[in-house]
């Protein structure tokens, strides 16, 4: 069997298990997600499943990624709302918060949970299998979506704001990190029921803090060009 045929066969088996995992997640929920259920649904044994996924967290990660399609498809429209990189980035946060707080457990699996592996490798591997998920996105956005680290993903995008004169280079990594920490903090609060907030309130609170932190590091004379408020 040639290498190409082996790769095709492997990709086919991965899809069998991923399709089964998605069915299990839809039917039983992410809290009742087991290798055995997935293997039974796919028509194979649990040991066969472990030949393709090192542990349950990897399979859960890949299955969760399938539930981000609406976010990926809607993101370009939000980016188009901005008249400059900072505005577009703020709108991208609005899109992300809208979808992540709608499905907090899904986005927690992807961006917060321990995976027992290098997240960047999992993200790239996923998009090798499901390339069509990002083919309709602009090339720049495709490169950003391939980056699993959300703070690095943000930094890649807002780098253009430096060229546009909105942000100093020294602040790129800071604003990417602090805004991610804001989201993680609110997501953790919501998931652990530490505050009585509706989904809409959680979204607005997150966006408000993101906005205030971003505006705090935008070059003062450029702030009047930012016509976004949360």
TrEMBL record:
Q: Which domain of life is it from?
A: Bacteria
Gene3D superfamilies (UniProt xref)? Tetracycline Repressor, domain 2
What keyword terms does UniProt attach to this protein?
A: DNA-binding
List, for all copies, the residue spans of the domain called HTH tetR-type.
11-71
Q: What residues are annotated to bind DNA?
A: 34-53
Any one GO MF term held by the record is: DNA binding
**Identification of the protein by name:** TetR/AcrR family transcriptional regulator
